[in-house]
């Protein structure tokens, strides 16, 4: 995988989504800018909003609705309804290594789809020379250090999320898409 000198991202964007709906809207805007072959790695603890974000991506891509958490399925394909790329949604949470992920054979769909891998950091970088790493974080007061807690409030109260997007590789060298 080729990365900029020093291994850092081409660019980083940090956005705030005030609730689940704004998370989906932001992701929908990003989805409209994606194309076949793009790889996204989603990071955030259980309940952080990775699936909510992916639902927005799907809307922006114009894929079949019904994106759910892939917790009990390793890979789910959401076909395009508008002639664009399909969305391949992957949960790498239970996979221990890049070798186990290779057994899924994502290489066969990478060129024709947008691939979103939850829990994929350290496991999927070899699939493409470019990727977006999206981290979903929720600030919860905490101490003076600014503690970040990565989970949704189970009471249903939406709290602001920080969505950090880091772009790696030549696909993203022209700057942020949002």
TrEMBL record:
Q: Which UniProt keywords apply?
A: ATP-binding, Cytoplasm, Magnesium, Metal-binding, Nucleotide-binding, tRNA processing
Q: Which Pfam families match?
A: TsaE
InterPro entries hit by this protein? P-loop_NTPase, T6A_TsaE
Subcellular location per the Swiss-Prot or TrEMBL entry: Cytoplasm
Q: Does the keyword Nucleotide-binding apply?
A: yes
Its biological purpose: Required for the formation of a threonylcarbamoyl group on adenosine at position 37 (t(6)A37) in tRNAs that read codons beginning with adenine. Is involved in the transfer of the threonylcarbamoyl moiety of threonylcarbamoyl-AMP (TC-AMP) to the N6 group of A37, together with TsaD and TsaB. TsaE seems to play an indirect role in the t(6)A biosynthesis pathway, possibly in regulating the core enzymatic function of TsaD.
Q: Which family does it belong to?
A: Belongs to the TsaE family.
Name assigned to this protein: tRNA threonylcarbamoyladenosine biosynthesis protein TsaE
Lineage at the top is: Bacteria, Bacillati, Actinomycetota, Actinomycetes, Micrococcales
Q: Gene encoding this polypeptide? A: tsaE
């Amino acid at each position: 995988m080729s990365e900029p000198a020093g291994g850092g991202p081409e660019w980083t964007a940090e956005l705030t989504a005030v609730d689940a709906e704004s998370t989906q809207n932001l992701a929908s805007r990003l989805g409209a800018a994606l194309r076949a072959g793009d790889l996204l790695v989603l990071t955030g603890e259980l309940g952080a909003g990775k699936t909510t974000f992916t639902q927005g991506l799907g809307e922006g891509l114009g894929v079949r609705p019904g994106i759910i958490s892939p917790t009990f399925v390793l890979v789910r394909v959401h076909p395009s309804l508008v002639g664009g790329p399909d969305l391949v949604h992957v949960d790498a949470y239970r996979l221990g290594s890049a070798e186990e992920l290779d057994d899924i054979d994502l290489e066969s769909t990478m060129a024709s789809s947008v691939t979103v891998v939850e829990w994929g950091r350290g496991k999927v970088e070899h699939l493409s020379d470019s990727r977006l790493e999206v981290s979903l974080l929720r600030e919860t007061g905490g101490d003076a250090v600014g503690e970040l807690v990565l989970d949704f409030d189970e009471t249903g109260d939406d709290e602001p999320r920080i969505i950090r997007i880091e772009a790696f590789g030549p696909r993203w060298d022209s700057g942020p898409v949002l």
